[in-house]
Design brief:
With 340 residues, the protein is α/β, with parallel strands linked by helices. It has a domain of 212 residues: Rossmann fold (3-Layer(aba) Sandwich), CATH 3.40.50. 40% of the residues lie in helices and 17% in strands. The chain contains 11 helices and 13 strands. A 7-stranded parallel β-sheet has the order 3-2-1-4-5-6-11, with helices on both faces. A two-stranded parallel sheet has the order 7-10. Strands 8-13 form a two-stranded parallel ribbon. α6 links the parallel β5 and β6. α1 packs parallel to α2. The N and C termini lie far apart (40 Å). It binds uridine-5'-diphosphate. The site of uridine-5'-diphosphate has 14 residues, from α7 and β8.
Length: 340
C-alpha cells in the first residue's frame, strides 16, 4: 500500500482528496498545522471511509519541524501539497503573511523531500494564474499573468519554483483548479470557512441556512448572458479524484515531462444567477439576494479547456451543477443540525 503525505489534509479539498485516496487503497498521512481547519476532519474522513488517517500536527513554515515530520514518513511515495492560506482579500491586507506561509511551507516541504528521497509532488494551483484570459476555454498554454492578489501570486511563484526544481529525479504535477464547490455525497464532510465566506457557494448555503441575511451578487453588467460573471464550477469529489489519477501517474512513472500542468474544471461556464437558480430549484427553496457593484479584481468570464487532462490523465469531471448544489446544501444542513 503506497503511503501519500497530504499537507493541509484537514482542509476542504485536502480532506475530500484524502477520502478519494483511501477509497483507492492508498495509505494517507495528513500534515496540518490546524491553523485554518479542525482535527474533526480526521474523524469525518474515518466515518466515511472506515479508515482513520494518521494526523501529524506540524507547522511547515518551520524547517526543523518539517524535517522531523518527513523523517518519520520517509517511506512515502508522493506528497500532495494543499497547505496554504487561500483568502484573496486577506492576502491583499497581509501580503507578507501569505508569501511567508505559502512559500516557506512549499520550500521546506521540497527541501525535506529532497533530503529523504520522496520524489513525487502534486501541487494545488489555481486558474487565478491566467488573470483575465484572452479567450475561453482557457488552455494550459494560455499566458500566465501576474495575478491580482498576493494569494494568486503565491500560486504563480510556486509554479515557477516547482518548474525549476523538477528534473529527472523529481516529478511534479501542478493542478490548476477552477471553482471547486459541493461536498461528499454522505453529507458528513464539506466546506466550512472561518467567519464570513468570501466564495460564492458557502455564502449561498449559509444564506439558505439563515446565518447570512442575503447574498450580494457582485455585478450584473458583465458581457455575459445575464450580466453576472461566469465561472467553471467543479464538484470537489471530481477534483479529489483527479488528484488520485495524478498520484497514479507519478507513482507508475507514466508522466512524459518532469513538470506537468493540468486544468481541473468541467469546461462549462455558469453565471452567478444560473448557480443560484440551480441551487433554488434542486433544493426547493428560495434565496434572498441583491445585485450590488462588481467586486474589485473579479474576472468577467473564465472556464477551462479540459482536453489536456482528458488526453494525458484520462480524467474528466463526471458530476454536474445539480449534483454540486445539492451536495453543498446537504452538507450545510447536516452540519447546522449537528451543531444546533
Ligand atoms: N460572487 C458573488 N457574491 C459573493 C461571492 C461571489 O456574486 O458573495 C461571485 C463572484 O463575483 C464571482 C463568482 O461569484 O463572479 C465566484 O466567486 P468566488 O469568490 O467563489 O470565486 P472566484 O472565481 O472569484 O475565485
Amino acid at each position: 500500500m503506497s503511503k501519500i503525505i497530504v499537507t493541509g489534509g484537514c482542509g476542504y479539498i485536502g480532506a475530500h482528496t484524502s477520502i478519494a485516496l483511501i477509497a483507492q487503497g492508498y495509505q494517507v498521512v495528513i500534515f496540518d498545522d490546524l491553523s485554518n481547519a479542525s482535527e474533526e476532519s480526521i474523524s469525518r474522513i474515518e466515518k466515511i471511509t472506515g479508515t482513520r488517517p494518521e494526523l501529524c500536527v506540524v507547522d511547515l513554515k518551520d524547517k526543523n519541524k518539517t524535517n522531523t515530520a518527513f523523517e518519520a514518513h520517509k517511506d512515502a511515495s508522493a506528497v500532495i501539497h494543499f497547505a496554504a492560506y487561500k483568502a484573496v482579500k486577506e492576502s491583499v491586507e497581509q501580503p507578507l503573511q501569505y508569501y511567508e506561509n505559502n512559500l516557506f511551507s512549499l520550500i521546506n516541504t521540497l527541501v525535506a523531500q529532497q533530503k529523504f528521497g520522496i520524489k513525487n509532488f502534486i501541487f494545488s494551483s489555481s486558474a487565478t494564474v491566467y488573470g483575465i484570459p484572452e479567450s475561453c476555454p482557457v488552455t494550459e498554454n494560455s499566458p500566465v499573468k501576474r495575478p491580482f492578489s498576493p494569494y494568486g501570486n503565491t500560486k504563480k511563484i510556486a509554479e515557477e519554483i516547482l518548474e525549476d526544481n523538477s528534473n529527472s529525479g523529481f516529478s511534479t504535477i501542478s493542478l490548476r483548479y477552477f471553482n471547486p464547490i459541493g461536498a461528499h455525497k454522505s453529507g458528513d464532510i464539506g466546506e466550512l470557512p472561518n467567519g464570513v465566506p468570501n466564495n460564492l457557494m458557502p455564502f449561498i448555503t449559509q444564506t439558505a441556512a439563515g446565518i447570512r441575511k442575503k447574498l450580494m451578487i457582485f455585478g450584473d453588467d458583465y458581457p455575459t448572458k445575464d450580466g453576472t460573471a461566469v465561472r467553471d464550477y467543479i464538484h470537489v469529489m471530481d477534483l479529489a479524484e483527479a488528484h488520485v489519477v495524478a498520484v497514479d501517474r507519478l507513482i507508475h512513472k507514466k508522466q512524459k515531462e518532469n513538470f506537468e500542468i493540468y486544468n481541473l474544471g468541467t469546461g462549462t461556464g455558469y453565471s452567478v444567477l444560473e448557480v443560484i437558480k440551480a441551487f433554488e430549484t434542486q433544493n426547493n427553496l428560495s434565496l434572498a439576494y441583491e445585485i450590488t457593484e462588481r467586486r474589485e479584481g473579479d474576472v468577467p468570464i473564465v472556464f477551462a479547456s479540459t482536453e489536456l487532462a482528458a488526453k494525458k490523465l484520462g480524467w474528466r469531471a463526471k458530476r454536474d451543477l445539480n449534483s454540486m448544489v445539492k451536495s453543498a446544501w446537504n452538507w450545510e444542513k447536516n452540519y447546522r443540525k449537528e451543531n444546533s
